[in-house]
């Protein structure tokens, strides 16, 4: 067992609940009591709350099932992708951007925590250890950049479809806010950060970074400035991320393939079904410019359609959308 596997085993034991004493933990992990304490310290350094009580042992404040690379590799084997799971990283997007990617294979990196997780428009993405999903795919497209307009919308729709499959909720709760926020009752559940890499060997590498709030119960208001939610809040139960990932990746890959062959047009009815902004009064910020109007869905190339007071439709290619209260 290497250090990472020991940490996984330790958190799995502690996740059963109750106190576990250092001696017994040491025996199971094949290490000394002092070494167990070092692993506990590592968890605390990662920001995990561990209760250590003399005479009783260690207890986790809440369950923590870590990502299992072997289990995920098996579940995703049919995609022939290159999967990497790391404990900590600055940002999974930044990591993939720094590699020279001339691969024709899909590359997927997932992290237990990000120390500099990035959101859209220069925002930070709160990424506490073991709580949520933070992952990025490097996806090679045999396409021109201009043909990729709409990809971020497709990614959001794929996430919604995957969550619907995973939770079989009696009524649909997941919605998409153009261009790529996943909301539940107006609170943010997930976001996507897409970064396009230079083209090489007739391929266009795209980094698709996805953050989904899974087990996070609360977050510091300093880092998250808008109402947020998590799957824990929605289902009231702890979610094993290892079970969600294969469903999400299957849906993503399948929808991206459909987008590659058929374009955005084949996703229009799905967009209408989940569109949070449709027929609502909104404003869209684009740099210093703010456009206001009634949202009338999206154009065939994924731009937001905004109807002004004279009934004219204006198209927004990008920006940050908000309801006008
Ligand atoms: C947003 O809604 O602003 C986009 C959030 C994207 C967050 C994910 S987490 C994994 C990947 N790595 C990052 O640094 N950002 C994306």
What can you tell me about this protein's structure?
- There is one protein chain.
- The chain is α+β, with helices and mostly antiparallel strands and 325 residues long.
- 30% of the residues lie in helices and 29% in strands.
- The chain is built from nine helices and 14 strands.
- It has helices spanning 3-14, 22-29, 33-45, 69-75, 92-98, 151-167, 231-235, 241-262, 268-274, and strands at residues 50-53, 57-60, 82-89, 107-114, 133-141, 174-177, 181-184, 187-200, 203-212, 281-286, 289-298, 304-307, 313-316, 320-323.
- The strands form three sheets. Strands 3-4-5-9-8-7-6 form a seven-stranded mixed β-sheet, with helices on both faces. The chain has a five-stranded antiparallel β-sheet with strand order 13-12-11-10-14. It has a two-stranded antiparallel ribbon with strand order 1-2.
- Strand 6 and strand 7 form a beta hairpin.
- Helix 2 (22-29) packs across helix 3 (33-45) and helix 6 (151-167) crosses helix 8.
- It is globular and about 75 Å long.
- The relative contact order is 0.11.
- The mean pLDDT is 93.
- It binds biotin.
- Residues 91-93, 114, 117-120, 123, 125, 134-136, 181, 191-193, 209-211 line the site of biotin.
């Amino acid at each position: 067992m290497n250090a990472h596997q020991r940490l996984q085993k330790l958190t799995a034991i502690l996740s059963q609940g109750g106190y576990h004493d250092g001696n017994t933990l040491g025996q199971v992990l094949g290490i000394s009591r002092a070494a167990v304490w070092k692993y506990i310290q590592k968890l605390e350094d990662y920001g995990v709350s561990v209760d250590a009580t003399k005479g009783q042992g260690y207890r986790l404040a809440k369950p923590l099932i870590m990502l299992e690379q072997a289990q995920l590799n098996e579940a995703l084997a049919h995609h022939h992708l290159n999967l990497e799971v790391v404990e900590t990283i600055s940002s999974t997007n930044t990591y993939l951007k720094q590699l020279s990617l001339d691969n024709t294979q899909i590359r997927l990196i997932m992290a237990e925590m990000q120390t500099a997780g990035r959101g859209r428009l220069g925002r930070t993405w709160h990424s506490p250890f073991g709580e949520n999903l933070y992952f990025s795919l490097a996806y090679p497209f045999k396409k021109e950049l201009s043909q990729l307009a709409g990809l971020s919308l497709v990614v959001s729709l794929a996430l919604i479809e995957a969550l619907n499959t995973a939770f079989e909720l009696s009524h649909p709760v997941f919605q998409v806010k153009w261009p790529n926020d996943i909301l539940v009752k107006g609170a943010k559940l997930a976001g996507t950060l897409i970064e396009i890499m230079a083209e090489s060997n007739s391929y266009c590498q795209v980094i698709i970074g996805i953050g989904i709030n899974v087990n996070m119960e609360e977050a510091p208001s300093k880092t998250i400035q808008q109402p947020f939610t998590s799957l824990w809040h929605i289902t009231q139960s702890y979610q094993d991320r290892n079970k969600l990932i294969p469903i999400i990746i299957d849906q993503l890959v399948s929808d991206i393939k459909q987008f590659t062959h058929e374009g955005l047009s084949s996703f229009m009815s799905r967009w209408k079904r989940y569109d949070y902004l449709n027929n609502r009064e909104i404003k869209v910020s684009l740099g210093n410019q703010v456009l206001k109007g009634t949202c009338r869905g999206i154009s065939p190339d994924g731009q937001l359609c905004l109807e002004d007071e004279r009934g004219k439709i204006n198209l927004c290619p990008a920006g940050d959308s908000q309801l006008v209260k």
